[in-house]
Amino acid sequence: MVFNSIPFVLFFVVVFFVYWFPLKKNTKAQNVFLLVASYFFYGYADWKMLPLLMVATAAFYFLGIGISRSKSEKEASWLRALGVVLGVGILFYFKYLNFFIESFAHLFESMGLHTNWHTFNIVMPLGVSFFTFRLISYVIDVYNGEVEPTRDVVEFATYIAFFPCILSGPIDKPKFIGQLHQKREFNYGQAVDGMRQILWGLFKKMLVADTCAVYVDDVFSTYTEQSGSTLLLAAVFYSIQLYADFSGYSDMAIGVGKLLGFRIARNFNNPFFALNMADFWRRWHMSLTSWVTDYVFTPLNFQFRRWGKAGMILAIIINMMVVGLWHGANWTFVVFGLYHGLLFIPLILSGAFMKKAQLTTNRIGLPVLKEFGWMLLTFALVTLGMIIPRAESIGQAWGYVCGMVNRSLFSIPWLKTRDYYIPKLVFPFIMFVVEWLQRRKEHGLEMGYDTRFTWLRFLLYLVILLFTWIYSEPGETTFIYFQF
């Protein structure tokens, strides 16, 4: 049940009206209903893994209470460590065990040692990367005194399984539980803004991401036959596809949250306008970046601080490899993380790593030439790196790059005309223009409430919906980050 599907629309209409009308004045009843709806939503996608989610939730709920009631620091520390090991263990078993078994089997066979190891064909639960990170951060924050452990099991379970976020985030911190404890009143302005954000996410997903996907899939599946310019164009389109797909999902999730009276963590802040790699990761998948910064990089950097900049470099490389491995069980993701970690080295050595980049514009509202150059360089480095996880293997990624960097790089790229592909190229352009004009706002359709322009706003909504109906790819498409 994906956001851009009829079943979800029907599901959410029922949830919305029951949540705000019969249950409006009863916060606890609202939470119980949200939990039931969230479990139904998750079960609809992967009902066999629903017991895992429920058991893990119960275990971490009691761990949080146990930490708060511990009679000594040592006991609390052991319970925290148990929670971290349990959370990582769930993630490792379901997401990485097959990967490591296969990797070691191939390693031993390359050394002439034949093994009879076999994969267990373990099915990865949907959203496991997201809900395990919520569970882990909860026990750590309780131990550190960042949050009080909740005694309300419904509130805690709803936080873990909250249906707008469980499959692909954002990864809200445990402080989100406080919103479940508060009484919620329907806010018309917030609800309208949520609808606009959903519409903007729908535009990015169905008119930008899915359009780019058609071209990207065709080129990557025949990359050995394509010119360098075509491979370069497909790589650029894949970066745009991945951004529009994931940020589109995040916009819809945040918009759904607003309709239910919640403020979900922002996940993207125009990352393709970044001026360097540190700036990019402060803007891209912000909830994950914040999570690994708090729970991986900061502790590592503290441990390695005696080594100065070398220690910081080591910490950031480990940190980015964790980010890469979080995305998938393949060596391509490990190399992807290492690639990004290495790109931080010049920033650390120059002292620019900890400084937030400030974007300045000229008189007509465009970036100054120097900053535009840094923006293009950052986008180029990001695009080159995106080839690695998009490929099925490191060898394929290397072959793709080698095929791109030759004389044919300066030829005219192939542009398919089937399914009106060339006219659809205007949609990524529109997305970038709108997000540049709205770069200081939360999303592309955030606007005021001046009643003089109501008709103009509704005309804009109708145009987006009409274009979505006419130009979107046929059939129901899922989101890329569901596989992570």
Describe this entry's structure for a reader:
- The chain has two domains: about 15-185, no CATH class; about 200-275 and about 360-484, no CATH class.
- It is mainly alpha-helical.
- The chain starts with 5 loop residues before the first helix and ends in a 13-residue tail after the last helix.
- The mean pLDDT is about 90.
- It has helices at about 5-20, 25-45, 50-70, 75-110, 130-145, 155-160, 175-180, 190-220, 230-260, 275-285, 285-305, 310-325, 330-345, 345-350, 370-390, 395-405, 420-425, 425-435, 455-470.
- Helix 8 packs parallel to helix 19 and helix 13 runs antiparallel to helix 15 (about 370-390).
- It is globular and about 70 Å long.
- The chain contains 19 helices and no strands.
